[in-house]
Amino acid sequence: MGEVLVFEHIPHKKILVTGPQRSGTTICARMIAHDTGLEYIDEDRIGVDNLSLAHDLFMSSRQFVLQAPALARWCHKMDADLVVFMMRSIADIEKSQRRIGWGCETIELRKYATQYGPIAQIKYNFWHNRQKGQVKNHMEVNYNDLTGHKLFEHNRSGFSARQWRREQ
């Protein structure tokens, strides 16, 4: 039986995969890059949330999939051909954040001019109420729908925050 390619139909060449941290942006961006043959670019290559570096990347002639949850606040202003916004339950995101000791909630909350989380809920509200209508080409991807893809590991509970670096 042949490989199931869930993203091979995407015609776009400059793709931003974003959403709350721990929502599955890394695995989804890897899957899209794999299925489309585009270059995968990790958020670290743009300084996690450096808007100038992200802008330069989108203005370049490169074709890529950029994984950058920290850019969720500005995804409607990026020059991406497609914005993929990851969806995952708040409870699962918070569980993952606790598991790895994620400590950037305060930094992310400041981007939305608030001091109170959970940041995942704030990002989802901002996406649905203010950004989504401004993004010409967008796709919402539910983390749980990724489980049928060949790159999805069924036992992900032991993975670190940067699980892909460990495996490369």
Q: What attributes does this structure have?
A:
about 170 residues, alpha/beta, Rossmann fold, 5-stranded parallel β-sheet, 5 strands, about 35% helix, disordered C terminus
Give unreliable regions as ranges.
164-168
| CATH fold naming | Rossmann fold
Number of helical stretches of at least 4 residues: 6
CATH architecture: 3-Layer(aba) Sandwich
List the domain count as a whole number: 1
Please give the largest β-sheet.
5 strands, parallel
Distance between the termini: 26 Å
Mean residue pLDDT? 89
Backbone structural class: alpha/beta
What is the helix fraction of residues, given as a range? 25-40%
What is the strand content? 5-15%
> Count of DSSP E strands?
5
* Rg over CA atoms: 15 Å
**What is the general shape?**
globular
Name the CATH class. Alpha Beta
In spatial order, strands of the major sheet run: 2-3-1-4-5
User: What is the name of the CATH superfamily?
Assistant: P-loop containing nucleotide triphosphate hydrolases
Order of helices and strands: EHEHEEHHHEH
Question: If you had to describe this structure to a student in words, what would you say it looks like?
Answer:
By secondary structure, the chain is of the alpha/beta class. The chain has a single domain, classed as Rossmann fold (3-Layer(aba) Sandwich). It has a 5-stranded parallel beta sheet with strand order 2-3-1-4-5, covered by helices on one side. The longest helix is centred in the C-terminal third of the chain and has 13 residues. It is globular, with a radius of gyration of 15 Å. 36% of the residues are buried. The C terminus is likely disordered.
